[in-house]
Amino acid sequence: MANYTPKIGKDGLPSRGLIVRQPWASMIVTGEKSWEIRGANTQIRGVIGIIAAKTGLVIGIAHLMQVIGPLCLDDYIKNRTLHGSQSLKEIDLPYPKTYAWVLERCMPLNPPIAYKHPQGAVIWVKL
């Protein structure tokens, strides 16, 4: 992993950023969480920025490798350490169709990089 250099632009950012609420955004960039749970599939793959929601900051980068799903409840519960939920309180899936966006080679940006948030963006931002 030490020799891995992600493909990023001159400004230090990949072309797209994924908006993630805290504390999950920080858990992704520190490697504590490798599945981002979403209610839809995505065709996007490759290096992405991880944006901490409502901060105006790209706090890290990750490689979106694949999407698994839709998940059944058993798969969701068995893999709770991958998506950051240590609790067994979940008695149902969070979405009617639940997908795991698999993230690898995650790393924080130090310092985080500010970006301009376009109005209405809730999942993806072009950086």
Spatial order of strands in the largest sheet: 2-5-4-3-1-6
Calculate the terminal CA-CA distance, rounded to whole Å.
25 Å
Rg, alpha carbons: 14 Å
Indicate how many domains the architecture comprises: 1
Overall structural class, as computed from helix and strand content, comes to mainly beta
Please estimate the helix content. Answer: 10-25%
What profile does the largest beta sheet have? 6 strands, mixed
Unreliable residue stretches: none
Please tell me the CATH architecture by its name. Answer: Roll
SSE blueprint:
Blueprint (H helix, E strand, L loop, with lengths): L15 E5 L3 H6 L5 E4 L7 E7 L4 E12 L4 H6 L1 H4 L15 E16 L9 E3 L1
Parallel strand pairs: 1-3
Antiparallel strand pairs: 1-6, 2-5, 3-4, 4-5
Features:
single chain, mainly beta
Structure explained in plain terms:
This protein has one domain: Hypothetical protein (Archaeosine Trna-guanine Transglycosylase, Chain: A, domain 4), CATH 2.30.130.30. With 127 residues, it is mainly beta. The chain is 13% helix and 37% strand. The chain starts with 15 loop residues before the first strand and ends with a strand. The chain is built from three helices and six strands; from the N terminus they run βαβββααββ.
In short:
This protein is mostly beta strands and 127 residues long. The chain is built from three helices and six strands. The chain has one domain: Archaeosine Trna-guanine Transglycosylase, Chain: A, domain 4 (Roll), CATH 2.30.130.30.
